[in-house]
Amino acid sequence: MTEPVRLAKRLAEQLACSRREAEQYIEGGWVRVDGQLVEEPMFRVTTQKIEVDPDATLLAPPTVTLLLHKPVGFTAGLDAGPGPKAQAALALLTRENHAPDDRSGIRTLKKHFAQLRLATPMDSRASGLVVYTQDGRVVRKLEEDADLIEHEVIVEVAGEVTPGMLRKLADPVQYHERLLAPAKVSVSSQNEDAAETKLRFALKGERPGQIDYLCESAGLQIRSVKRIRVGRVPMTALAPGQWRYLAEHERF
User: Hey, what's the signal peptide range on this chain (predicted)?
Assistant: First the structure.
């Protein structure tokens, strides 16, 4: 009976390469065992057929940025307050939740779900676009240029929104001892009976709780909040709970 050995060791023997190079091929998603993709160098094999993709390279896979449509009830770095503890949105970043129409051309690897940093916090009461990234440049861009990057948010409120309320929402506001830039606010849609209104906010330097504060100041009751764009990157047609890669040509 053949003794099981690590896949990296068997592959190194098969390719006459170093163990480290074999690990790089495996972790890069280039190796199949009996036709099944295996990305763990420690995986044990015996007599299975081991194949290496003809396009395999030892170049390290590039860092990635994932765009998630976070549903209500999942938290992303912010606590919604008292009540049941919300599940972390990070748990939604799995192969199964990858959007089938992702056009980035990036091959999904297990390494893409490791060492992710949250770049756009959101509490469990809100939904919409949340950015997770392995790329330190993306984190610096979204943090250091936060006052310049516009967030587009759809806010559903109860009742009719009058012109006076709109003006109030767009006023410069002192929030947590800081004067924030005026928000651009418009009516997106309104029910015929004026029971609810959808507002479109465009804010630069959005701060946690800012929209709640603006709506409360204008006498409006929020029913839902959904972020649909960060900078120049839209959420597009992502279904709740699905994610896609930030494509090479996209910039925040």
Answer: none
